[in-house]
Amino acid sequence: MVHWSAEEKQLITSIWGKVNVEECGAEALARLLIVYPWTQRFFASFGNLSSPTAIIGNPRVRAHGKKVLSSFGEAVKNLDNIKNTYAKLSELHCDKLHVDPENFRLLGDILIIVLASHFARDFTPACQFAWQKLVNVVAHALARKYH
Amino acid sequence: MLTAEDKKLIQQAWEKAASHQEEFGAEALVRMFTAYPQTKTYFPHFDLSPGSDQIRGHGKKVLGALSNAVKNVDNLSQAMSELSNLHAYNLRVDPVNFKLLSQCIQVVLAVHMGKDYTPEVHAAFDKFLSAVSAVLAEKYR
Question: What is the pTM of this model?
Answer without folding.
Answer: 0.89
